[in-house]
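> @MW can you paste both from yesterday?
MW: sure, first one:
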Amino acid sequence: MNVIFDIGRVLIDFDFEGYVRSWFPGEAAEAVIKAMWLGSDWQHLDKGDLSDEEVLGLFISKAPEYEREIRLTFARLGEIPKQKPTTIPMIEELKARGNKVYYLSNYFEYLIHSAPWALEFVSHTDGGVFSCHYHEIKPYPQIFSILCEKYGIDPADSVFIDDSPKNVEGSNAFGIRAILYTGQTPEELFKEIGV
C-alpha cells in the first residue's frame, strides 16, 4: 500500500498561532494571525506563484499598522516547525510492513530553506511533492495527480492522511481514501490505514 502524509501538523508540529501569541500582546497577535494565517494570501506562498516580498506585501496590506510585527513574524517563520519524535520511527515501521511512504504538502520554498531540520524525515520516505515546486495546492485534484504520475501510484491502493477536512474531501474525491488526522498515535493510524 502507498501511505501518503501531509506534513504540517501531521509529520511535524507547526503552531503558527501559538508562536505569534508568544511574541506579541493580545491585539497585535490577533491582527498578525488574521492578516497572515487566516486569509487566502498564504496560498500564494504554498503555490509559489508570487515572490516572498509580494506575499509579505499582501499580508501587510491587511494590517498596515502592524507592519513591523508581520515582518518580524515572517522573518522568524523558520522557528515554528518542530520535529515530532514519532515521525521517523513511524515511517520506518510502515516501510518494514511492506508499504511505500510519500508526502504531499502545501509547503513553501522559504520554509524549506529556513527550517531544513524539520524535514529530516524526507530522506526516510519514498518521495513526495511540495506544492511550491509545482504551483498546485491541495485540495485540488491536480496536485494528487502530479504525485501519482511522478511515482506511478495507484490511487486505489493508497491512503492519504491530512489534518484538513477540505484536503481529506479532495483526496476522497480524487479516488484516494483519506484519513483525517486529529492527533492519533502511530499505532492508531496503522489500524485506520489497515496495515
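MW: second:
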Amino acid sequence: MSGKSKDYPSLIKESVAELQEMERTQKHSRYRDYVRFVRYLKEGTSTTQLAAGERIGLKARQSQVLWQRYKQEGLAGMLTYPFEGTAGKLSYSQITRLRGLFRDATTPLTQQQIADWIKNSFGVGYKQSGISKLFQRLKIKLKTGRPSNVRKDEAGGEVFKKTSLL
C-alpha cells in the first residue's frame, strides 16, 4: 500500500448517519466491522485504508481487498452472507411421509431398509452414512424399552402394585 490518502469521503456514496445505522443493524460482527471500516474512511477519522483496517483489526492486504470489494460491489455487495445453506434431498412432505412410516412401523427398521424405501418411494438415493446423517438432522433414533430381569416375579409385581398404598 502506498500510504497515499485518497479523498475517501467523496468516493463513499453513503452518509455517515446511514453508515452508523447500518452498523447498528448488522447481525454478524464481521459485517459490522466492514461497515465501520467504510465509516472511518467517510468520516475522515482514518485517512488511509491501512489506518481504518488497523482500527478494526485487519491487516494491510485485507484492508485493500475490502476497499476493492466496496468499489466494485458497493456496500450491499460487501454485506451479503455467502452461505445460504443447502437444500436437503427430501422435501418437507417427503420427510412427513418418512416420519409417518416410523409411526406406523410395528417392527424396527434398519437403515438399509429405510434407504431402500426412500429409493422406491421418492427415487432419491442415500448411502448408509447419508441415512445416518439424515436421522441425526431429523432427531430420529431407535426407541427400545428397558430390559427386564429374567428372574423377575411378574405375579408378585402385580400383587405389589395392587396392594401398595402409593
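> thanks! DSSP finds nine helices and no strands in the chain.
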